[in-house]
Design brief:
alpha+beta; Pnp Oxidase, Chain A; six-stranded antiparallel beta barrel; 3 helices; Split_barrel_FMN-bd
């Protein structure tokens, strides 16, 4: 797997909220989740129950899309990530390790038992208008 560029990784690491889009056979749904970024494994770690609407949908169809984008009032300050990923509910040792990783970023999570998911990036498009208007950078897991 290709490493994520420093520019994209720094942007993802300094944010904390992802908007996920998922789909099952009948409908589409979006959900916002706090995350911890695991750069080494090219993934986000999120906590959500499999009984939530998006959790049930991700169990049926693991291929998802999403965005990470702070709210900017000026078009010249827009920066954000759009991505395609695979979501997977973790179990056993993988779940424990990921929960500790997430809890390091969001300490309150250490007190909350939860299902732990990985959102494994396949493709990322990063836009940053701060330096050059409409500057885009692309990353693919397999290129």
């Amino acid at each position: 797997m290709n490493p994520i560029s420093t520019t994209i990784a720094e942007f993802i690491a300094k944010n904390h909220l992802v908007s996920l889009a998922c789909q099952d056979e009948q409908e589409l749904w979006c959900a916002n989740c706090f995350y911890a970024f695991d750069r080494e494994n090219c993934r986000l770690i999120i906590l959500t129950k499999s009984t939530t609407k998006h959790g049930m949908m991700m169990l049926k169809n693991s291929r998802i899309a999403g965005t990470i984008a702070p709210q900017s009032e000026s078009i010249r300050h827009i920066a954000g990530v759009q991505f395609v990923a695979n979501a997977r509910c973790l179990n056993g040792n993988e779940k424990e390790v990921a929960h500790r990783y997430y809890s390091a970023r969001h300490p309150i999570a250490a007190l909350i038992p939860s299902e732990v998911w990985e959102v494994k990036f396949e493709q990322i498009k990063y836009t940053n208008n701060k330096m050059v208007f409409a500057k885009k950078e692309y990353w693919n897991a397999t290129d």
